[in-house]
Amino acid sequence: MTATLTERYISATIRSLEPGTRNDIRAELEASIADAIEARVAQGEAAQEAERRVLAELGDPGILAAGYADRPLHLIGPKYYLAWWRLLKLLLWIVPLCVAGAMALGLLVSGQDVGESIVQSLSVGLQVIVHVGFWTTLVFVVLERTGADTGVKWDVDQLPEIPEDGAGRSELTASLVFLGIAAGAVVWDLVRGFFPTGGEPIPILSPGLWPWWIGVLFALIILEAVFAVALFRLRRWTTAMAVLNTVLALAFAAWALILLLRGELVNPEFLSFVAVAGGDGFAAGNAQAAGNGGIFRILAVLLGCGIAAGIGWDIVDGWRKAVRERGTARG
Q1: Does 297 lie in the same domain as 192?
Q2: What are residue 205's DSSP bridge partners?
Q3: What does the pLDDT average to over 262-274?
Q4: Which residue of 13, 83, 260, 276 has the smallest Cβ count within 10 Å?
Q5: Which of 52, 69, 86 is the last residue of a domain?
């Protein structure tokens, strides 16, 4: 015997429910569907057409069953969504960057090619992003299904301060002072040096960088100062200013990293002085690290990674401020 549409609908609804509740819900649905069909038939509709319309209005039996079982049909509901999203964003900012950075640092110290190190680090970083997203979401799915309390409570003390991303006078002053100190340090390094040698000063930066490479550095410093003044006069970050900030940051990164990779950034005489001043212990440590290119190579890798990290943050911060300013303007 072929089951009617009503019987098939009720069966589809109750099959995922607890056995102890199925009979009661079956009886409830049979009565309510029969009453609705009878009302439509009384208004002149055919019985079969009335049955189809009543079941269509009830909707997907899976959704109806979830309502009876008080079972959520979403992965993460509003109770846990904000906690999940805030934690996920925090982890995605920290974990992949730290893992990929550590990976790149280890590969470079061990003597791997720069390009190969970057590719492998990016690959590992992408894998970490996938794992962080999956496992963090899985934890909150379990919390959602079990109804556990995360212990996270909101109160008014958590209200954030209103961000002030517009370029103010204090930011301009800090930028100009920093740039002035940087330019003065380059000149001081050549004239007086930063380390006592017991004789003539030994610059840290290679004297061979004068005048052309140092001239490029001073030009970048001047452009940074002009950018800071222009930003102050504009009073806000825009997409164009974020692009200019990115270009200037990448130009400085190219200047520093190209010279560092070519071994022309640091004065060889200064490195020799450090090696001699370090004594036997330093020499022994350098010999133990010879398989990785020596202590100076390790320090160069650390310096390069530090420069890249600082430039990366400068670029990201500029775009973050530009996006926030644009959102504020639209609001």
Answers
A1: yes
A2: 266
A3: 79
A4: 276
A5: 69
Same domain, 269 and 189: yes
Same domain for 82 and 135, yes or no, is yes
- Mean pLDDT over 245-266 rounds to 89
Peptide bond into 78 cis (omega under 30): no
Q: What is the pTM of this model?
A: 0.59
Distances (CA, A) of 238 to 51, 171, 318, 319: 61, 16, 9, 9
CB 103 within 8 A of CB 109: no
pLDDT for the residue 290 = 45
Query: Is residue 80 within 8 Å of 67, Cβ to Cβ?
Result: no
Quick one: average pLDDT of 116-133? 86
User: What are the CA-CA distances from residue 148 to residues 141, 144, 228 (Å)?
Assistant: 11, 7, 50
- How many Å separate Cα 3 from the centre of its chain? 55
Average pLDDT of the segment spanning 218-232: 92
Pick from 122, 150, 178: which residue ends a domain? 150
Residue 184 and residue 281: Cα distance in Å, rounded? 34
Looking at the structure, do residues 179 and 271 belong to the same domain, yes or no?
yes
What would the pLDDT profile of 94-107 be if each residue is shown by its tens digit? Answer: 888 888 877 777 77
Compute the distance between CA of residue 40 and CA of residue 45 in angstroms, rounded to an integer: 6
Q: How far apart are CA 238 and CA 67, in angstroms?
A: 49
Q: Is there a domain that residue 155 lies in? A: no
Contact criterion met (CB below 8 Å) for 144 and 72: yes
Number of folded domains that form the chain = 3
Q: Do residues 47 and 134 share a domain?
A: no
Structure tokens given for 234:
């504009």
Asked whether residue 182 carries a pLDDT value surpassing 50, the answer given is yes
**Do residues 128 and 102 lie in contact, with contact meaning Cβ atoms separated by under 8 Å?**
no
Nearest to 64 by CA among 19, 97, 15: 15
Peptide bond into 160 cis (omega under 30): no
Range of the domain at 274: 169-330
